[in-house]
Amino acid sequence: MNINSHESESEPMKFLPTKPDITLDHFQQLDIRVGTITRVEDIVDSRKLVKLTVNFGDHSRSIMVGMKQERDDPTEIDGLQALFVLNLPEKRMAGHLSQGMLLDLGYGNAINPCLAVPERPVPAGTSAG
Predict the structure, then answer these.
(1) Which value, to the nearest 10 degrees, does the dihedral of the CA atoms of residues 33, 76, 16, 119 take?
(2) How far is residue 84 from each of residues 13, 23, 61, 88, measured CA to CA in Å?
(3) Which of 30, 73, 84, 87 is the most exposed place for a label (fewest CB within 10 A)?
(4) What is the DSSP code string of 17-73?
């Protein structure tokens, strides 16, 4: 596999400028944890959103994700582990409460996004950083 290529070879990847520096303290304020996706539900009223139920070991959360147009079958991520940001304010999306944010790779680069995942299985709730 060529790590410098991506799924859509017809369009070059959009490289983003490096963001301004932040302090280590600012970075450490992010609560990024591994969650295990235990359920993927279609949000019928939405073109983009699906609802994930995610196990973080000591609790579960509902997290809304705009991935309908990125995957033929969003349920294919059921059972996978991924990285999530937990300490963002809860937000209502399409009438459903979202209690965090899935970290994905590629959306800002205009390529088909993929999950940010640990290299091997770890306990749900494992902290990043």
Answers:
(1) 50
(2) 24, 21, 11, 10
(3) 73
(4) PPPPP--HHHHHT--EEEEEEEEEEE-TT-SSEEEEEEE-SS-EEEEEEE-TTT-S-
The partner residues of 34 in beta bridges, in order of sequence, read 83
Question: pTM (2 decimals)?
Answer: 0.87
Sign of CA dihedral 103, 108, 109, 113: positive
Cα 113 to Cα 103: distance, rounded to the nearest angstrom = 10
CB-CB contact of 52 with 84 (8 Å): no
Locate tokens 């959306």: which residue? 107
Q: Are 68 and 47 in contact (CB under 8 A)?
A: yes
How confident is the model over 68-111, as pLDDT tens digits? Answer: 999 999 999 999 999 999 999 999 999 999 999 999 999 889 89
